[in-house]
């Protein structure tokens, strides 16, 4: 099928088809992908079940519902630890501490990498019985991430002699652990009598993702994601209610008849930092549906956070498009910045998110330093 990209109006995130045949089409799609990532930091990837079978996505959502409805002590048996794996309950995570009164109205389950098909973390019975499906789903996501990274490298015209189209992908596969994380998310509906304040409370506070790229799976009829388009962002980092929050529909026009909503792909802080902010790490959040206290439905989503191999040194990207953006200061290509590894970058961001879980308090300071915002 022909690759297709359309900008359906101002402020709308482009929809791209990555079902590619032939090199000419590949570079056309790659260019569109880089344009979308440079302008919005987000792009919809049509989902016809070619990269990831629709059934595998449906099964993951079924499993997610089963897990989140299981008894509290079962969930507590795999509680999140410093390695960022496991279950985090309601209000555990506070993505935007400056603007939030309480933590996010969500619960989540993080899976780190599997080794030889086995999870490297405690699993409650429902996941234990589905370990091979979880492993397979993670593989699908990882493979799709590598395909996208290849397209980004082509779109950025990375120098052939330095590795060309494989430059990013080769730093995300084989040889050692990485921060790659599969995350199931559940945003429960508000029960009557709960301490929920519609004017301030939020399902997931404003944040940008930490890694290279994120794949996000959403469900029809369960909206809530919003972004601040980079071009509307102000210098003073206003992520509060008066920022230019723009809803991101689950099914943008033209995708309603696809077998599954498009997969949203967004750029994380690390890839933005790495490309001297050519690709944007866009701030986003998840809000409650309008309608008040007793309204709304449960919302489920699944995110795959792609990261380079932990020991990867974030050396300058050998691309003229990236080099011309080197202005010094925060840029990897500039002077005076310590070349950090992917793992150092990730740890600095995690410490800022899970207030209190990491014992030292350096996280906030380090996060400020590496933030691409
Ligand atoms: O649930 C969503 O739609 C977004 C989740 C998200 O942004 C995250 O977990 O980083
Ligand atoms: Fe996110």
From TrEMBL:
Fe2OG dioxygenase domain location: 176-308
A GO molecular-function annotation: oxidoreductase activity
Keyword Chaperone listed: no
Keyword terms, alphabetized: Iron, Metal-binding, Oxidoreductase
Family: Belongs to the iron/ascorbate-dependent oxidoreductase family.
Name by which UniProt lists this protein: Clavaminate synthase-like protein
TM region(s), chain numbering: none
An individual GO BP term: small molecule biosynthetic process
Matching SUPFAM superfamilies: Clavaminate synthase-like
Keyword Metal-binding: yes
Top-level taxon of the source organism: Eukaryota
